[in-house]
């Protein structure tokens, strides 16, 4: 079953199969993505805020809980963050006692670990996040959200190939 959206053709599994080249982009893509990001962040923050976390803090806390003790460099890579952004985002979670750092395998390395309070707060925030996700899906439409996810994944893959210096064609 094919579903045609304004800019892309998708399959039932919402995999991008072709781009409609007759549609021309207008304006700055970076600006448009940042605008969308701010609107989506405000939406999720409105739900997650009741738990005392920002959405970005919830995401970071969740990754640490799910991945277990993890080196900051590995965490930054998994979250697609640069090291300075990760360090800045870790500070409030460390200060609140939701995460802690402990020595790694050698004197130069360290690991980020979720505390029991961090695990409990993450479980609490997960319910709020789930409500935000359901509300987002309802408001935007599940098919559009799935198509958006497919488009985002495709763009990330294409840009990651380009960033690695490989042919992006």
- Approximate helicity band: 55-70%
Rg, nearest Å: 19 Å
- CATH architecture descriptor text: Orthogonal Bundle
The number of helical segments is 6
- What structural class do helix, strand and pairing data support? mainly alpha
Key words describing this protein structure:
single chain; 169 residues; mainly alpha; Arc Repressor Mutant, subunit A; three-stranded antiparallel beta sheet; two-stranded antiparallel sheet; globular; disordered N terminus
Describe the structure.
Strands 1-2-3 form a three-stranded antiparallel beta sheet, covered by helices on one side. It has a two-stranded antiparallel ribbon with strand order 4-5. The protein is globular, with a radius of gyration of 19 Å. Helices cover 60% and strands 11% of the residues. The relative contact order is 0.12. The chain has six helices and five strands; from the N terminus they run βββααααββαα. The protein has a single domain, classed as Winged helix-like DNA-binding domain superfamily/Winged helix DNA-binding domain (Arc Repressor Mutant, subunit A, Orthogonal Bundle). With 169 residues, it is mainly alpha-helical. β4 and β5 form a beta hairpin. The longest helix is centred in the last third of the chain and has 25 residues.
């Amino acid at each position: 079953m094919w579903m045609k959206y304004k800019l892309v053709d998708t399959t039932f599994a919402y995999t991008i199969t072709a781009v409609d080249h007759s549609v021309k982009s207008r304006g700055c893509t970076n600006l448009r993505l940042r605008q969308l990001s701010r609107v989506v962040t405000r939406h999720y923050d409105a739900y997650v805020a009741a738990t005392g976390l920002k959405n970005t803090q919830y995401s970071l806390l969740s990754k640490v809980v799910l991945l277990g003790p993890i080196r900051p460099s590995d965490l930054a890579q998994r979250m697609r963050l640069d090291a300075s952004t990760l360090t800045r985002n870790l500070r409030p979670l460390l200060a609140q006692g939701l995460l802690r750092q402990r020595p790694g395998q050698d004197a130069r390395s360290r690991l980020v670990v979720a505390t029991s309070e961090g695990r409990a707060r993450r479980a609490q925030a997960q319910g709020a996040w789930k409500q935000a996700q359901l509300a987002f899906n309802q408001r935007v439409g599940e098919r559009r959200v799935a198509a958006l996810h497919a488009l985002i994944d495709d763009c990330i893959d294409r840009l990651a190939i380009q960033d690695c210096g490989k042919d992006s064609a």
